[in-house]
TrEMBL record:
InterPro entries: Cro/C1-type_HTH (IPR001387), Lambda_DNA-bd_dom_sf (IPR010982). One of its GO terms (molecular function) is DNA binding. This is HTH cro/C1-type domain-containing protein. It comes from Billgrantia gudaonensis. Residues 40-74 form the HTH cro/C1-type domain. Transmembrane segments: none annotated.
Length: 135
């Protein structure tokens, strides 16, 4: 399934969940009531619902606010959003305060210096891997 057709399914489901029929005329009317930019056409929203195109980010945000869903959930789906949240949760729970400070200092360095630090870390890691040392 393409990104566009998966988005179309999520959009139609979100419309139903919000109490709207997932029809182009309904989507065009409700979207344009909330969007302050150039109105979208019936053909444009039909392409969203058919899975032919994806809305631009600003339009996605309006859709999400109207349908009461997170923009990233509407665009990528719940599973993708949950995987990202789980990965962030694991990262936050396994890092110490001292390690967090080191990472913050690393991120404050200019890009060229961060590259050097990354190369040093990579060299240590490869050396550790080649000796088979675990700790």
């Amino acid at each position: 399934m393409s990104d566009e057709s998966a988005f179309a399914d999520r959009l139609a489901n979100a419309m139903r969940a919000a109490g709207y029929e997932p029809r182009p005329a309904v989507l065009e009317r409700e979207f344009n009531l909330r969007f302050w930019g150039k109105p979208v056409t019936l053909q444009g929203v039909r392409r969203w619902l058919r899975g032919e195109t994806l809305p631009q980010q600003e339009k996605l945000e309006v859709l999400a606010a109207w349908l009461n869903v997170e923009p990233q959930e509407l665009r990528y789906g719940k599973r993708a959003v949950n995987r990202i949240r789980e990965a962030k949760g694991r990262w936050k729970s396994t890092i110490s305060a001292e390690e967090r400070q080191v990472l913050e200092k690393y991120l404050a360095l200019p890009v060229a210096e961060r590259k050097v630090v990354a190369q040093v870390i990579d060299a240590f890691y490869r050396a550790r891997q080649s000796t088979g040392d675990e700790e």
